[in-house]
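Notes to self, Peptidyl-arginine deiminase:
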Amino acid sequence: MSISIGNLRATASWNRTSRFWLAWPQATGHRDHDDAARDDSIALAQLLAVHAPVTMVATPMDVVQCSLQMPAGVMTLAADAGSSLLATQPVWLADAAGTVLAGVASDSLAGRDLAQAAGVQVVDLPAGWQGDLIETDGEGTAMVLARLAEGLVGGRVEAERLLAEKLGIMQVIWLNDPGAGRVPARYLAPGVVAVPGGHDANHPAFAALSANRDLLRAASDRVGRNFKVLDLPCPSRQRGCYSDCMVAGDLVVVPEFEESRDAQAFAQVVAALPDSRVIAFPATHLAGPGNGLGRTVLAQPKMN
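result:
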């Protein structure tokens, strides 16, 4: 069932968390990798369960094995496309007071399945719009990937009107796509943004990422804060992303990729977030290419 959103607005990731959603790693045919990924998933579920309930999403074929390995209190959910269910990265919506979660915005079938599992309704978005293209601070400002406006007759003007109307986003910062197909930045706290850095001038993403970094450093959000931009390193051996931290309430989980730059990335985040609980967790076997833990774990905001 679809709903009319009225005064609803997109929430921030530092809202209180109602539930964490994780995807049970599917077999790749590489036993050592698969075993490590599943061990890390179990450990991550156990860590997060201290903060909020956890549901592990698994394919019907894997759900029995998954449920037998879960720590006490961690739920399992059978879904035909467990990983894609979470990959939709929906935009959670709350009422004007910021207290009641009212809907999930997604244009995909997986997003609708997730909305049903989460117990919320669906808000329709234009075709091709998905949460990975939008990163919001819950206060009316969002970083948005430039390609979100493609295909709209009115271009960015029309896109900004729809973002305001459907998601309560009143100020848009358009970012270039370095090739990942998602917003190449993440809010860690109000006014604090992490971006991937460390690329040399010959890297194909260098120009787009440099332009985005300069744009954010010169910008301010809707309430007048200048952005504090954390230029985090890139893993030297892995195709991961340190800036893709998982943020849920005051908890920030920095991905580790089993290399020396782990310590540098962690130290930068700790220094920038003195009021947050910052921890590190291995992401080598869990994160997809170009990702960290932010797009590996889905934090559902708390409903009242």
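- The mean pLDDT is 88.
- The CA atoms of residues 267 and 278 lie 10 Å apart.
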